[in-house]
Amino acid sequence: MSMQAVIFDMDGVIIDSEALWRQAQIDALAQWGGNGERC
After folding, report:
1. Which InterPro entries does the record cross-reference, listed alphabetically (predicted)?
2. What is the 3-state secondary structure of the chain?
3. Which of 13, 14, 26, 27 is deepest in the core (most CB within 10 A)?
4. pLDDT digits over 1-39, tens only?
């Protein structure tokens, strides 16, 4: 089976992913010694 389409949801219309992105930023910054207060 070949892929025929890809859907990108860049503005949160299909899935509200803002909270997931926020947590990903906090986790990534924590690995580098940051605390995520200013992102």
Report:
1. HAD-like_sf, HAD_sf, PGP-like_dom2
2. CCCCCCCCCCCCCCCCCHHHHHHHHHHHHHHCCCCCCCC
3. 26
4. 898 998 888 777 888 888 888 899 889 888 988 776 665
For the record, the structure tokens of 36 come out as 């995520």
Q: Please, which residues have CB within 8 angstroms of residue 30's CB and are 6 or more apart in sequence?
A: 36
Both ends of the chain: CA-CA distance in Å? 41
The whole-model pTM stands at 0.52
Kindly compute the dihedral angle of the four CA atoms of residues 10, 11, 14, 17, in this order, to the nearest 10 degrees.
90
